[in-house]
Design a protein that fits this description.
The protein is of the alpha/beta class and 254 residues long. It has helices at 2-29, 65-79, 116-139, 146-156, 189-203, 226-243; strands at 44-51, 82-90, 104-105, 165-169, 175-176, 179-180, 212-216, 247-248. It has one domain (44-248): Rossmann fold, CATH 3.40.50. Helix 2 (65-79) packs antiparallel against helix 3 and helix 5 crosses helix 6. The chain is globular and about 60 Å long. Residues 96-121 are annotated as: Disordered.
């Protein structure tokens, strides 16, 4: 009886192995058996800039970058059909920061039998874990060099294909050891142009030309100060669209 049972199990295993070999071949040939439908390839290169400065803390006066990251990242990756995600931190010196997460492939290699929905969901979870790790690291370095972070993400995302999409989770309060936006006069277009000139002259231009920038939290510190909020918005619009030649989209701004 035991010999018969073992023989039966071996027969079942052999049959399963033959099926495992045959199904992909049959799927590839488009014949006889129903295979899982393959999803449209995800090819959009995406980038995430995440602010670890003090103003991004979960405090009353902060805008809580972690909460906003959790609220927006998944929707952003899905909406924009992101195929890859690169990272850049906002710290006191963003370009030279040691905080660096590896690019996440959001549409991993697969074959005709792969459950792509599950595979992609797993990849998005990996991206979320990496994003939180990036934020945790950025918080240890403090500061708010937004301009440097934009430069860094512009260098990281692949170009030459679909338009890159950048999610920037920050209040955009540029404040590094050499420059504090809050101390600058940005009340007129002429004054704002001079401030932008100083940033470009000292730091160069972020390589984000033609990219779509989705800010999250921009200017939240000015919610109770409408006139200052308007000047702040104008400054970043003129810097990002007027100078860097990117396109700003407020879809996830909140």
């Amino acid at each position: 009886m035991q010999h018969s049972a073992r023989a039966g199990r071996r027969s079942t295993v052999r049959a399963a192995r033959r099926l495992a070999v045959l199904v992909p071949l049959v799927c590839a040939l488009g014949a006889l058996v129903s295979c899982s439908k393959q999803e449209e390839a995800l090819t959009t290169p995406c980038g995430l800039v995440i602010d670890g400065s003090g103003s991004a803390a979960a405090a009353k006066e902060g805008f809580d970058s972690e909460a906003k990251l959790k609220d927006t990242l998944g929707g952003f990756l899905t909406d924009q059909k992101c195929g890859t995600l690169d990272f850049a931190p906002v710290t006191r010196s963003s370009r030279s920061s040691s905080c660096r997460q590896d690019e996440v492939d959001l549409d991993p290699p697969h074959d005709a039998t792969t459950d792509q929905k599950t595979q992609r969901a797993d990849a998005q979870r990996d991206a979320a874990v990496a994003a939180l790790a990036e934020l945790k690291c950025a918080r240890t370095q403090n500061g708010s060099d937004v301009w440097g972070a934009l430069t860094r993400i512009g260098e990281a995302v692949p170009t030459g294909g679909p338009t890159p999409k950048l999610l920037v989770v920050s209040d955009f309060d540029q404040a590094d050891p050499e420059f504090h936006l809050s101390r600058q006069d940005i009340t007129t277009k002429t004054a704002r142009a001079k401030v932008i000139d100083s940033l470009v002259d000292k730091r160069g231009m972020p390589g984000i030309k033609g990219m779509d920038v989705f800010p999250v939290g921009l200017g939240m510190q000015y919610k109770a100060k409408p006139s200052e909020a308007a000047d702040f918005d104008s400054f970043w619009t003129e810097a990002l669209e007027g100078r860097a030649k990117a396109h700003v989209d407020d879809k996830y701004r909140g």
